[in-house]
Specification:
The complex is a heterodimer of chains A (232) and B (287).
Chain A lengths: L1 E2 L2 E2 H16 L11 H4 L6 E6 L6 E5 L4 H21 L3 H15 L4 E3 L25 H6 L3 E17 L2 E2 L4 E12 L4 E12 L12 H21 L1
Parallel strand pairs in A: 3-5, 3-6, 4-6
Antiparallel strand pairs in A: 1-2, 6-7, 6-8, 8-9
Helix pairs in contact in A: 4-6
Chain B lengths: L1 H15 L12 E2 L12 E4 L7 E3 L19 H34 L1 H7 L4 H5 L16 E10 L6 E10 L8 E10 L12 H27 L11 E7 L2 E12 L3 E6 L4 E5 L12
Parallel strand pairs in B: 2-4, 3-4, 6-10
Antiparallel strand pairs in B: 1-6, 4-5, 5-6, 7-8, 8-9, 9-10
Helix pairs in contact in B: 1-2
Classes of the chains: A alpha/beta (232), B alpha/beta (287).
């Protein structure tokens, strides 16, 4: 079979290569905080905090089939119940307050509410170092120069599996992103991935209180605070 | 039958996926009522012998990477379970090996200290607190068993003690312990022992540091068994210890505070003694 004079197989291979190349975009690397931008006089900085949608729970990775996931869930179900009932968002609020306090040492910062969710903003076609969404529209609508966003995706515990088999114990876990954007250029003023996992000390499977995993969670929180303090 | 097989399958995975055994760990059990009100009636013994066990402190992360295994689908349900069991035992073995290698590497870093402790003994460290120390031949139902394990930072500038203490249940059987708990004592910072110019000085500094921690841990264990520490109803908070250039979090509440140490009971009900130089003491010290 031919298509535009080429064998169909060749067209398919080229198409597939282009598709895969498009999917394999390079991930955003850490951008150290550019303090010079914050040092401008009369700069207006807004801060947005996006809390995790889920309560604290066990996040399972690597259980690659439906039955594997079911087995993995059943192995961590008691821990899920404990985390959901006992881990509040208080410590996440403390992380938020720390970010505000650290930025406030450099320039005045105000907590704001975005007029629309971030994923509803238009795409921005920039290179690495630029946000993938177009935040610059917020400069006019919100009267800001820099927008700082702390987004925490997941918290609780993390457990890695190879299909049905756990690779290790559930670990204390906090994941998210901190980024700041110059609304004039849509460039990152700061970009930091948060992916903190802490191994519990000793035995993890101690229902109903799971003291080792719970302590590991609080350790993960403190580690994140230490990293943010150092980064801002 | 299917349900039974699935149950067995889950149990196999739960068993294989459990944390590797560590001898510096125990669950808290306290079935003691009023039988040890008189501390003088309580004897104690070193269950593992009189030699000093000193190890390098290492990160206990035993998680291994993804292990890709292609299961043979034509082997039936029993075959599948056998394959998963084999996969689980491979992962388990890799986790054990990872911990063993980490311990060996940590020990190699503090070999100087390990050589020094060879000439020390636990009864020697107890000194005047050793009145009620008995040998393993003369233990009875009122004897507290002790297993102390000392740890050192890689740069040998700080020591820590984990003391596992227990009293076997007189009836034995399912109730294996009448009491068991772990006491962790952190030593103050001292100049690296290797910086001292001769072996005798090194040994003296080391013995003194180990003795302070062992005595403190024993005192805490005796306080716990004899009911000095009531169950704390205080609000839980995070406490911090500097360990291997990282801040370690302890979640719990304070049960004792004095000029030397703050004793915190954590979520495991373990007791952790933090030297006052590592935190702001709430107690005014008359020095």
């Amino acid at each position: 079979m031919t298509l535009f004079g080429q064998k169909f197989k060749h067209v398919l291979v080229i198409g597939l290569s282009l598709f895969l190349a498009a999917c394999a975009s390079a991930p955003q690397q850490t951008v150290a905080l550019n303090s010079n931008i914050l040092a401008k006089s009369d700069i207006k900085i807004g801060f947005v905090y996006i809390a995790p949608e889920e309560n604290a729970t066990t996040h399972i990775y690597g259980a690659g089939c439906l039955l594997c996931y079911g087995v993995a869930s059943s192995l961590t179900s008691k821990l899920d119940t404990h985390l959901e009932a006992n881990i509040s968002t208080d410590e996440l609020d403390n992380i938020k307050n720390l970010v505000i306090a650290q930025y406030a040492e450099k320039a005045p910062i105000t907590e704001v509410t975005l007029p629309m969710p971030i994923d509803k903003l238009k795409k921005f076609k920039g290179e690495l170092g630029y946000a993938s969404k177009d935040f610059s529209v917020l400069k006019q609508t919100m009267g800001l120069d820099v927008l700082v966003v702390l987004q925490l995706y997941r918290h609780g515990a993390y457990r890695s599996f190879s299909s049905y088999v756990p690779n290790g114990d559930p670990q204390g876990y906090v994941a998210g992103t901190l980024f700041a954007i110059d609304l004039d250029t849509n460039a990152y003023v700061q970009y930091l991935e948060i992916d903190e996992k802490v191994q519990p000390a000793g035995e993890w499977d101690e229902p109903v209180a799971f003291p080792s995993v719970t302590t590991a969670y609080y350790q993960a929180i403190e580690n994140v605070k230490a990293k943010l303090k150092e980064a801002i | 039958m299917q349900r039974f097989t699935f149950l067995v399958f889950i149990m196999v995975l739960a068993g294989c996926g459990s944390t590797p055994y560590r001898d510096d760990y125990t669950k808290h059990v306290n079935l003691v009522k009023n039988q040890f009100n008189e501390p003088s009636s309580l004897t104690f013994t070193f269950d593992g012998g009189d030699s000093v066990d000193l190890r390098g402190h290492y990160d206990g992360d035993d998680e291994v990477g993804q292990t890709a295994i292609l299961y043979q689908g034509g082997a039936g349900l029993v075959g599948l379970i056998a394959q998963i069991g084999l996969h689980a035992s491979l992962v388990d073995s890799t986790r054990d090996d990872k911990l063993a290698v980490a311990q060996q590497e940590a020990n190699a870093q503090i070999q100087t200290l390990i050589d020094q402790v060879q000439r020390l003994s636990l009864p020697l460290l107890l000194d005047d607190m050793g009145e009620n120390l008995v040998t393993r031949d003369t233990v009875n139902t009122q004897t507290l068993r002790l297993r102390p394990i000392f740890f050192s930072k890689p740069d040998m500038s700080q020591l820590m003690l984990k003391l596992v203490a227990w009293i076997p249940h007189p009836k034995g059987g399912k109730n294996t312990s009448l009491y068991q708990n772990m006491i962790e004592v952190h030593g103050g910072k001292f100049a690296a022992v290797t910086a001292l110019d001769d072996n005798t000085k090194q040994g003296d500094v080391l013995a003194q540091s180990l003795a302070v921690m062992l005595k403190k841990a024993l005192q805490i264990a005796l306080n716990d068994v004899t009911g000095v520490y009531q169950k704390s109803n205080g609000a839980q908070a995070s406490f911090f210890i500097e360990q291997n250039n990282k801040t370690r979090v302890i979640r719990g509440s304070v049960v004792e505070e004095n000029c030397d140490y703050q004793v915190v009971q954590d979520l495991h009900s373990w007791f952790i003694a933090i030297p006052v130089e590592q935190k702001e003491s709430l107690v005014a010290c008359n020095i």
